[in-house]
């Protein structure tokens, strides 16, 4: 029988650990981690994500600071807000919810966030730290993927891994994290030639392609572990709206472990956001002088 990797249960354990760290920071240093979430416009999916993030931030005892801006907000106005949050010692993490309206350059905004407060792990400094293995804040979804893999794999050394997806948000960071564990890593995507044959060689398959049911059962060898990052909203043959992953889940009864969609990687993303925020708060409170980007590996 296939082992279902329960992201909800694992995320709950991560959140419990974060809550204990928050209490310890308050008790020992008088610091309460603060997470600022910035939402521009009224994107329905973003509204749902922000509500979940705010609820879970307060649930673990952290301060949640919300900034909801109208869709007509200018890039200059948003950059001014980011600058003020960077300078606020009570804010330890900053998250700008994507997508942003077309008049705002998302890359410019993300680059403006203090790397020490970049709990999404998207700033070039954190990307560079990850690629060089020298610390920094790790993007939440890739970090969650590794935590899920840790529940079923004791030793990654020498394992063959295939990552399907080359995004800066998931595919590339996951590949780098697997390399850090001494896996042999192949990065592929939906246009890769002979993709099924490449996947069949893998002990670990991470799929983040945004293509419903892309990976079929006969693509995956028996005993492999599959992490499905895909979240696709479809209408099935009965006219029902459903959320499905990038993997044909019902065909995976021969694998050693697989994440369901929903309930797999999704809950881990927010849990890792909380973990990154308390990590940033711990670093910034060590000597009372705030975070130093040059010492983020410590």
CATH superfamily of the largest domain: NAD(P)-binding Rossmann-like Domain
Individual helix count: 9
Report the sheet with the most strands, covering strand number, pairing sense and barrel closure: 5 strands, parallel
In what range is the share of β-strand residues?
Answer: 15-25%
Unreliable spans are none
Domain Tetrahydrofolate dehydrogenase/cyclohydrolase catalytic: 5-120
Domain Tetrahydrofolate dehydrogenase/cyclohydrolase NAD(P)-binding: 139-283
GO molecular function, one term: methenyltetrahydrofolate cyclohydrolase activity
Keywords: Amino-acid biosynthesis, Histidine biosynthesis, Hydrolase, Methionine biosynthesis, Multifunctional enzyme, NADP, One-carbon metabolism, Oxidoreductase, Purine biosynthesis
Provide a concise account of the structure shown.
The protein is an alpha/beta fold and 298 residues long.
Structure explained in plain terms:
- The chain has two domains: 94 residues, Leucine Dehydrogenase, chain A, domain 1 (Rossmann fold); 128 residues, 3-Layer(aba) Sandwich (Rossmann fold).
- It has 298 residues and is α/β, with parallel strands linked by helices.
- 39% of the residues lie in helices and 15% in strands.
- The chain is globular, with a radius of gyration of 20 Å.
- The strands form three sheets. A five-stranded parallel β-sheet has the order 5-4-6-7-10.
- The longest helix has 23 residues.
